[in-house]
Amino acid sequence: MNAPALPRRAGFYVSFYNVGCKKTVNSLNFLYNKTDMDAVMKMGGENLTKILLSLSEGFANEKQMLEKELGKLGATVTSITTKKESITEYLHDTEIIVTGLERIDRSVIEKAPNLKYVSKFGSGIDNIDLVAASERGVLVTNTPGQNASSVADLTLGLMLAVSRNLTKSNEIVKTGNWQLHIGNEIEGKRLGIIGFGEIGKKVAKRATGFDMNIVAFANYQDEEKAQRLGVQFVSLEELLTTSDYVVLSTSLKKSTYHLMNEQRLAFMKNSAYLINIARGDLIDEKALIRCLKAGKIKGAALDVFSKEPPELELVELDNVVCSSHIGGATEECAARIGNMVLQNLKNYLQKGDLIHKVTKND
What is the pLDDT of residues 174-220, one digit of tens each? Predict the structure, then answer.
């Protein structure tokens, strides 16, 4: 029996999009050693799996790593940096999509007849239509917990920034001025964490270093970990009415959409701060704007928004500190996520078991 024919030059083609214009940067060819050649032979030669990477420019190192390692396994990898409108021309023969914030909704899935697997480069899956994926039999995985340390670090940073007017003070000094701002200490204050998953737990652990009184509200209550961290579970209303800092660290789903609405924002103390490092749609932003303008809460620190970039009316308020969805944007976090994504892709290509499968019921 003859071995399957190899393509004339096994490798992968990488194209990037910049400012809406197609710009081919490079065509990279991989020279296979014997081990790599064997892997390609096992996969059937020219019947290479086509993988589409759709990641932001900040993950260039992870893109290159995935391109190289998947190329060794005989996959054809196309890499883009654009949003949904730019991926449509690649969907007709794509079998696997690796996505960060790109929306993989029903329309995308319907335009990808060969799609069998969506790998989320991150933990949040609200940008993937799980129902549509399930109907088509498309597998979905994510990388839970890999961003927890990075997001927890940022959470404490945002708490300190909004408490001490750091961004305002930075701007004043850089414009050649000098002005004193009175802020608040966080030591000894009550921290309320909504959502007690990996991120919530790491936020609590860091907050113990500030001797904060920590309470949490969660559907799944890890009593053992809470006891070790000195965290007490309370009702949502008690958390909101008693906390000096309220951190949103829960997933976005139908039941949590606009979790912080006008009514729940009104529960908060007028000296309290709201911190959101999860998903923008957890907050009714119009209600938050009214609340902040009226002084019903002291301030907000936001890394995520319902629309990104956000509406200026919210971010231009003096009592709002904001960042551009950078919670998981660290070199360490990106490397961990990239390695987990790669391992799952290898498992898929080699017919192994996938880890962290996500279903429409999650």
Answer: 999 999 999 999 999 999 999 999 999 999 999 999 999 999 999 99
Cα 356 to Cα 340: distance, rounded to the nearest angstrom: 10
Q: What is the homologous superfamily of the domain 148-322 according to CATH?
A: NAD(P)-binding Rossmann-like Domain (3.40.50.720)
Per the annotation, the verdict on 206 as an active-site residue is: no
What is the fold, at CATH topology level, of the domain defined by 11-146+331-349? Rossmann fold (3.40.50)
pLDDT at 13 over 50: no
Active site residue 57: no
From 237, 308, 331, 332, active-site residue: 308
CA gap 65, 150 in Å, rounded:
21
The residue annotated as part of the active site, out of 62, 67, 279, 285, is 279
Give first-to-last CA distance, the chain, whole Å. 46
Confidence of residue 3 (pLDDT cuts 50, 70, 90): very low
Residue ranges per domain, the chain?
11-146+331-349, 148-322
- 239 contacts 116 by C-beta, under 8 angstroms: no
Q: Would you call 181 a catalytic residue per the annotation?
A: no
**Considering 264, 285, 325, 336, which one is annotated as catalytic?**
325
